[in-house]
């Protein structure tokens, strides 16, 4: 599945407010997807820091795209668990959201997401996720 097909999945499978994040597929590998979350004042809190809610939404979206990439097509799924650790503030730059499928079975899938600054490469947020495959 190429970058264009993954980008086309955003308006097809995600709510309009998720599309408002402006996510762009930056690349993909056999086990994952990287999205770019553009810096935007609407997603920032005091001091220009990217808000946690935007990071978590971007992480969840990236993992669903990674699952689409993994399976070669969309499979209905739902987030069962998302554990998020915010490591440092992210401001003044786009965020790169790298999602990787760790294991995908018949009924559950597990993944990891790293969100880092696009300019400095420093990790700002890490997530682990579990999805039920419906």
Automatic annotation (TrEMBL):
<protein>
    <submittedName>
        <fullName>PaaI family thioesterase</fullName>
    </submittedName>
</protein>
<keyword id="KW-0378">Hydrolase</keyword>
<dbReference type="InterPro" id="IPR003736">
    <property type="entry name" value="PAAI_dom"/>
</dbReference>
<dbReference type="InterPro" id="IPR029069">
    <property type="entry name" value="HotDog_dom_sf"/>
</dbReference>
<dbReference type="Pfam" id="PF03061">
    <property type="entry name" value="4HBT"/>
</dbReference>
<dbReference type="GO" id="GO:0047617">
    <property type="term" value="F:fatty acyl-CoA hydrolase activity"/>
</dbReference>
<dbReference type="InterPro" id="IPR039298">
    <property type="entry name" value="ACOT13"/>
</dbReference>
<comment type="similarity">
    <text>Belongs to the thioesterase PaaI family.</text>
</comment>
<dbReference type="InterPro" id="IPR006683">
    <property type="entry name" value="Thioestr_dom"/>
</dbReference>
<feature type="domain" description="Thioesterase">
    <location>
        <begin position="52"/>
        <end position="122"/>
    </location>
</feature>
